[in-house]
Batch of 2 targets.
Target 1
Amino acid sequence: MKVIIVIPARMKSKRFPGKPIKKILGIPMIIRVIRICEEIIKKENIYVATDSKKISNLVKKNGFNSVITSKLHLTGTDRVAEAASKIRGDIFINVQGDEPLISAKDIKIVLEAKIKNRNKIICGFSKINKNEDPRSNSIPKVVINEENELIYISRSPIPGSKKKLKEYNKQVCIYAFNKSELNLFKNFNRKGKLEAIEDIEILRFFELKKRILMVKTCGNSIAVDYPRDIGKVEKIIIRNEKRNRTKSI
């Protein structure tokens, strides 16, 4: 069984153009993400899927693989699907290129769940922490049944309750697919109705009647959505490095 990690990356983010190549403590963000993935599988099985020659050249200069994909893709998963059509593999892990604090352990959790559940899409989730607001529309909230399958995912605070809920779960954007699941997603060739409303790509699989198994992760990563997020990430990296040095003494 061959496992491939694909990291979708594009230059023209509306909120933060060019963010994959922005440096975090001197290292381009996309390179930081690749190095985390390298803790799980060999570098020859990690690919950056991008529509940008600038990103591709940077990735190759640092000794990693890149696949040029269309500029017309609707979502990152569409980009991963195109890349998967060009790469031989059995399991494809979609890791976000804008999460330089993503946990290698979480990637491994998603991978192991896919190995055990080959007929289900796998996606991570975690509790929303005290510093996050469930009302924020930048955090997709998930509702999961008793078999840990996704019932719905929304930018609104769900599930609703007559009482004030103390706990919400959020999506952690690490996915695992096989090639046929990615082909179904790509060949749908448009956003589903709910996907378009919520702007959450995994909702397309509801239209395709595919089951989505949610697996719990630590979920402590921070997505870099805006330029101001770079400073937040740098502070956390510095704090973690100090903590690790203290432990080793």
Target 2
Amino acid sequence: MADELGDPDLMVPPEPDRSRPGSWVAVAGAVIALVGTIGPWTRTGAGNRVLGAWVPNVRWSMVAAAAAIVLAVAVWRLRGDRSRRATLVVVAGLAVTVASTLAVAFPPTFQVASWGPWLGVAGGAIAAAAGIAITVVERDPSQGV
């Protein structure tokens, strides 16, 4: 009978690939957003230093920095229940993007935005797009042959 049916090891379907490209894109977006919080967020004033987003006052830069931390944790935990965590990645990525955009558009009085918030915009957008892609793939998985 084994000669007729073949080797059972060849009949077992392969394990699904857990390291999808969307996960690595989300990681890249989160890293870019975190690097943005390390740099200066303004060209003068309190945000013109290393870790410029982390100012003691509540500003858009601080909201973006906190959202970047949430984004990094969500991306790190993306390995488990992907659909729920991908939604968190989308929300955190959008929060980083919106807060960073508002930091560019409305910097503190007599100050101009530096390169940090621009990295926040890019990183948040990349991570949010990757989260959306992961969510779409999870809802409509490929059938594979």
